[in-house]
Amino acid sequence: MSAAALDAAPTASVAVNPRTRLLLNGPILTTLLRLAWPNMLVMLAQASVGLIETWWVSHLGPDALAGIAIVFPGYMMMTMISAGAMGGGIASAIARALGGRRQADADALVLHALIINGLLGLGFAALFIGFGRSIYVAMGGEGAALEAAVRYSDVVFAGGLLLWIGNALASVLRGGGNMALPSAAVIAGVALLVPLSPLLIYGWGPVPAFGIAGAGYAVIAGTALTAVVLAWAVLSGRSIARLRLSKLRWRMFADILGVGAVASINTLQTTLTVALTTALVATASGTEGVAGYGVGSRLEYLLVPLVFGLGSPLVALVGTNVGAGQRARALRVAMLGGALAFGICEAIGVAAAIWPEAWLRLFGNDPTMLRVGADYLRRVGPTYGFFGLGLALYFASQGAGRLFWPLLTSVLRMLIAVLGGWFALRLTGSLSWVFVALAAAMVVYGVTLALAIGRGAWFKGQS
Question: Where, by residue number, does the polypeptide cross the bilayer (predicted)?
């Protein structure tokens, strides 16, 4: 037999796991909803905990609220890269290996995934602990708000490695179509964080009040518990892809990084868009304006974990079907997932635009904060559906291993939002027109990406 035939022979004999068979042959809508709904509920719960933490911090005053708003884009960037970008690369690589019946490759990818995320976790900690103050000054932080930002940032990024490792393990499970165990791990972390956050912020009995740093300590504790549950799940054999000691191979790193690194650029652009817009708001309206924009845009960030709950099944479904050569089915999965995300996010955005103060007054009553936050939600909220559409198709593109169009449309969004917002502020002096630019950027992002993928951009040039 030839070498190629010897390689192919064991692959062909590998039986298809029932969970993989469901991804390949199950009814698309039923399968997608079955995998997505527990994920979406848990991701919504996790995001809500962040909002609860913001609510507790808001009682420390506008400076603390502005400080956490300045740190939030960087922390969300870390979360989105570890779970959505590199996490998507891990899940996509494992899903394609399982779809192609390459069990040995799927197992080897687990170790490579942990190494990649571990090194990136250490790098992020070094960056934000070493240069956090300079970064936050560039974003418009000053005075007491800047000091609050640095105290919170030093804590959450010091424990960031736990987040990276936990998200690598969660992605391993999701790549095999297992959405329940990652959800259970998140619930465990949430259950710990909810009572711990106010306890550590304000203190009680023998527990001292740590202030805004206490919010960071609570985040680390919840993240640690989530990581422990996920490690138990993978090491106890509850994952189709199993952790095995094996020789490190560049091909395995490349399989993850080919999707994850490009997706990380997309995430960096998204975060940079928010960071630069925050700087524009700080220039125009000061600390209270930043707090208002931060609270308003946090609702936008709430959509990310919500769509991630839908996006994780999209990565597994699309990746498995692409690996098995079922391209038409993979495309149908992507477009259906995009439509569902559009509907969910649009409903949230329209509600926020109609009743902005119902959201904003949860975090304070400062007139400038309320005015800026309401202005943002009225103009940008009605375009949230397009953001959800683009984000869902970004996850689907990870599954397909084709990220050119998500990257291109993310660049377009950033240029329209930041450059358009800067020109609008220079010409009119009004934040309202900055927010119009942000809304236009979301529409372009979602529509352009949907048209490209719908017309077969994933598979052009392939036989």
Answer: 40-58, 64-97, 109-135, 155-173, 185-204, 210-235, 256-282, 302-322, 334-356, 376-396, 403-425, 431-453
Query: Which two three-digit tokens encode residue 114?
Result: 């942990």
2 occurs within a structural domain: no
- Integer angstrom CA distances of residue 51 from 45, 48, 311, 384, 451: 10, 5, 22, 18, 34
The number of CA neighbours under 13 Å toward the Cβ of 381 is 22
Full residue range of the structural domain in which residue 102 is found: 29-458
In a domain, 22, yes or no: no
SS3 187: helix
Cβ atoms of 278 and 69 closer than 8 Å: yes
Summarize the confidence of residues 401-410 as an average pLDDT: 88
From the CB of residue 146, how many other CB atoms can be counted at a distance below 10 Å? Answer: 20
pLDDT exceeds 60 at position 5 = no
How many structural domains is the chain composed of? 1
Tell whether 310 is covered by a domain. yes
**Does residue 55 sit within a domain?**
yes
How far CA 20 is from CA of 17, 25, 109, 256, 398, in Å, comes to 5, 9, 17, 20, 18
Q: Comparing 430 with 21, which gets the higher pLDDT?
A: 430
Three-state SS at 204: strand
